[in-house]
Write a structure and sequence with these properties.
Distance between the termini: 51 Å
Radius of gyration: 20 Å
Strand content: 5-15%
Strand order of the largest sheet: 3-2-1-4-5-7-6
Order of helices and strands: HHHHHHEHEHEEHEHHHEE
Helix content: 40-55%
Number of helices: 12
Bound molecules: S-adenosylmethionine
Shape: globular
Number of strands: 7
Oligomer: single chain
Length: 360
């Protein structure tokens, strides 16, 4: 009986924190759709032909059903004691309104770049050579690429609107794979590295589950690392570094787990291979690599049409190669064994282990 009450309490508390959040971002999405429809009807709008694909795409009902399955999994993870009731730390109403304003203010610029297929504004005399060429693009057609404070402050609203408020929920689906790896171990003796940590939302979820774990987050963007430092300041045992995942500033065999969330689809194929090799070098024997990113072609055939349209709408230059990439084969070449894939709405969690007996 007590068990039933406590389950009911957990679900109620979960719904009370997540449903308003979903509604907030669904509201943004609805406004976005209306603005897009109005732009298409205007005389100057929609100069580029709409994106075509013959592959099937899910209807709204299917999308909502899959979102619901994801939320049920999230609450099941809480009930199983894998992580506590999540706190998304979205900030005060004022902060959220400020970020919404940043989000909406950038839409005309995004539209302009999309129409003209312009995505190289961040490749300038000042940036050329300081960052890899593949990185210096306006990913998602967003202003500032990865280079500005406004871009960092706008990013989480953009991603949550894209996924109707489920981006953090999907990120948390990497945690059960860490839970399995950390079972029976003292979290104070463990070290986790998150590459391409962005604004630090995933690291926040990791800290909520394992507050004494030592974390290292790295990202090539100074602005995103600054934002992550602010966002994560309530936690201790956490280092955030501006660094390239192609040359991880950590010794061989030194970390227990490496995660990367929504990053590998933004890397050219040859760089993906370098990064996975670096991860294999830095992982301890028996360590685990978790890549959480978009579904790939054929994972959910009903979504294949969405996967085809996405890179054209959001400037994702390496996404087409990503959807057909063979990650288990890349990992194998680097000495990592593919354990499993776990689908989570429009994302998937790919799990790889380094052999416990054979150092890299
Ligand atoms: C789509 S964002 C994902 C951010 C975050 N992991 C999340 O959960 O939203 C991709 C991130 O990868 C970073 N990035 C891209 N290439 C990188 C590289 N070679 N080394 C380090 N970070 C990189 C970008 O700066 C950006 O913050």
């Amino acid at each position: 009986m007590n068990d039933r009450f406590s389950r009911f309490g957990t679900r109620l508390a979960y719904a009370a924190s997540q449903l308003p959040r979903l509604a907030w971002y669904a509201g943004h999405e609805a406004v976005l759709r209306r603005l897009a429809a109005r732009t298409r009807r205007s005389p100057s709008g929609g100069a580029r032909p709409p994106v075509q694909s013959n592959a099937p795409a899910p209807d709204q009902r299917r999308i909502y059903a899959d979102m619901f399955t994801l939320l049920r999994q999230d609450v099941a993870n809480v009930e199983a004691g894998i992580y506590p009731l999540p706190n998304d730390h979205d900030g005060s109403l004022l902060t959220r309104l400020y970020r919404s304003q940043l989000f909406f203010a950038d839409l005309p610029e995004i539209h302009r770049r999309r129409e003209r297929n312009e995505f190289r504004e961040v490749l300038t005399e000042k940036t050329r050579g300081r960052w890899p060429d593949y990185y210096l693009q306006n990913f998602h057609f967003q202003s500032g690429g990865w280079m500005t404070n406004d871009s960092a402050d706008r990013y989480d609203t953009q991603v949550e609107v894209l996924f109707t408020g489920t981006a953090n929920v999907m990120r948390r689906q990497a945690l059960p794979q860490l839970f399995e790896r950390f079972a029976g171990l003292d979290q104070r003796s463990l070290r986790l590295l998150d590459i391409g940590c962005g604004t630090g939302r995933f690291l926040d979820a990791v800290k909520q589950a394992w507050p004494r774990l030592s974390l290292l987050g790295l990202d090539l963007s100074e602005a995103y690392i600054r934002h992550a430092r602010r966002h994560l300041r309530r936690w201790t045992r956490i280092d955030l570094l501006v660094a390239n995942a192609e040359a991880i500033p950590a010794p061989d065999n030194s970390v227990d787990a490496i995660t990367s969330i929504f990053m590998v689809h933004e890397l050219p194929p040859e760089i993906r291979r370098i990064v996975v090799k670096e991860c294999a070098r830095v992982l301890k024997p028996g360590g685990r690599l978790i890549l959480l990113d978009s579904l790939q072609r054929g994972d959910e055939p009903a979504y294949d049409g969405l996967l085809e349209r996405f890179p054209q709408k959001y400037h994702e230059p390496y996404y087409r190669s990503y959807v057909d990439e063979d990650f288990p084969a890349i990992a194998k070449q680097c000495g990592l064994t593919h354990r499993r894939n776990v689908k989570a709405f429009v994302s998937k969690v790919m799990v790889f282990d380094k052999s416990a007996t054979r150092p890299f």
